[in-house]
Specification:
347 residues, alpha+beta, Phosphorylase Kinase, domain 1, Transferase(Phosphotransferase), domain 1, six-stranded antiparallel sheet, two-stranded antiparallel sheet, 12 helices, 38% helix
Length: 347
């Protein structure tokens, strides 16, 4: 019912309808879609609410990405709300976008982890391919950060520990996320769930990526210069995420030249030449150990960072009092990695 409650809060005043009435509508898919159409018709472009696509009906659009729209949908067979990520008509014939959607579906099919959004279906047969994903919730970590302005260091560390567990799980199976940021993380009951593997990269030795896919302010230096990517690329992303959650701002400024393709790379991407500023929190003092950990994550040279996300999380764990796995299990096995086993993650 999280799906209903969140949507009800948004439309209750405008539609002048109670939550009980809204929930009744939700239990009847046809009435639900008619209601959504009346109250959300302004938010659609190519796919109006109430559109039936195979076994599901579109309820409303959640987001608009580079090449795809993301919709909340009702699945008539499974009888549950889901999320559909579907290529737009103008981009569906582009092999690049179709390949990216296929790669995302392939990655999610192999990554069964409580900290990663679950794939329900991948349809590549239709003219407009789509992914069907579980409906995690309505609030992203970006939404929470905008509300809170910043997080206390302990709270930020706990979030990054859980996200890191999911990222390491993906790294161990040969996938680099390479776009770790608050808007790609949903909160389910306060627990982070990693989304958007649209620019996921298969880690195969010293392969160089053909492009700089990702969000400019979150790119690691090797992504910008198109060097081979490794799990240390995601270590960098987690370092930026932890810095932003504590400070309430990204460590590197947004360059005015970022869209100027003729400008030198170091002008378009300040992280190539600038060191991260000192981390400050408006909530409580940031320990020197935590500052050093983040500084190491954000080293420009990959070899100066932690060798893996597992090492980063282990050092983070030993330097704070925030724990997400049993300490006795670590002592019992010399090469124990709690991040390879999702069942060991604690609340």
């Amino acid at each position: 019912m999280i799906f209903v409650e969140a949507r009800a809060k948004r439309v209750e005043e405008r539609a002048n309808i109670s939550f009980t009435e809204y929930r009744t509508l939700f239990l009847c898919p046809v009435a639900f879609c008619i209601f959504i159409f009346v109250n959300n018709a302004h938010s659609f472009d190519s796919v109006p609410p109430g559109t039936r696509i195979n076994d599901f009906t579109v309820a409303y659009r959640i987001a608009r990405g580079m090449c795809a729209d993301v919709f909340a949908v009702w699945h008539h067979v499974l009888r549950t709300p889901l999320v559909c990520k579907r290529l737009r008509p103008e981009d569906a014939s582009d092999r690049k976008w179709r390949r990216m959607l296929r790669d995302e579906g392939t990655a999610l099919a192999r990554l069964q982890h409580p900290g990663i959004v679950r794939l329900i279906e991948f349809n590549n047969r239709d003219r407009l391919p789509y992914l069907l994903l579980e409906h995690v919730g309505e609030q992203t970590l970006r939404d929470a950060l905008n509300e809170e302005q910043s997080f206390a260091p302990d709270a930020a560390v706990r979030i990054v520990q859980h996200v890191g567990a999911a990222v390491h799980f993906a790294n161990e199976r040969g996938f680099i996320h390479r776009d770790l940021k608050p808007s790609n993380i949903m909160l389910r009951g306060g627990r982070p769930v990693l989304l958007d593997f649209g620019v996921v990269w298969r880690w195969k030795g010293a392969r160089r990526p053909p492009d700089r896919s990702g969000t400019p302010q979150y790119l690691a230096p090797e992504q910008i210069t198109r060097e081979p990517l490794t799990p240390q690329t995601d270590v960098y992303g987690l370092g930026i995420l932890l810095f932003e959650l504590i400070a309430g701002a990204r460590p590197f400024r947004t360059s005015e030249e970022r869209h100027n393709r003729d400008a030198p790379l170091d002008l378009r991407y300040p992280q190539l030449i600038e060191d991260a500023p000192e981390l400050k929190s408006s909530r409580q003092r940031v320990s020197r150990k935590l500052q050093e950990i983040i500084r190491r994550c954000l080293a420009r040279e990959p070899e100066r960072r932690f060798a893996s996300v597992a090492e980063f999380i282990a050092v983070l764990d030993s330097s704070t009092h925030v724990k997400i796995y049993p300490r006795n299990a670590l002592r019992a096995q010399k090469n124990f990695s709690p991040f390879a086993d999702p069942n060991l993650i604690k609340e």
